[in-house]
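Protocol step 4 of 6: structure prediction from sequence.
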Amino acid sequence: MERMPLVVNIKDYYQLVDHTGDLGIIVWGNDLAQLFCHAGLAFFDIITDLSRVQTREEKEILVEGQDLEQLMVNWLGELLYLFDTRGLLFHELRMLELSNNGLKALGHGEPFDQERHIINTIIKAATYHQMKVAEGEKGWQARIIFDL
């Protein structure tokens, strides 16, 4: 797969949606790889200010799922796991391989640094509630609800 260029403003690729007690987003991409990268970047954009994240580390990420919805939940769950256990914040994601039931990606970023990074929102999980990944007239779109 081609290297996805760094998204200058990820806010152009997702929007927040109202959801009682939780946080929902709709995210889109021109293709499935871009959709998954944008979903991951939106996840980190909700957590912190991505403009303060630098590339100090590269991490290979492998995820499996039975379908696209489970793959999306597992993808975001793996990113959350890397943040919770290693403090990793990614400001660039590159999809190396992607199928309906698996992906291999590279994340570029750095561990959380309390001197430079501010946590805006604490996300507990990406949920299956109202999860939808689908191709439409304008590319791919996903609806994701995060448990806060």
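Step 5 (inspection) to follow. Residues 45 and 113 are 16 Å apart (CA to CA).
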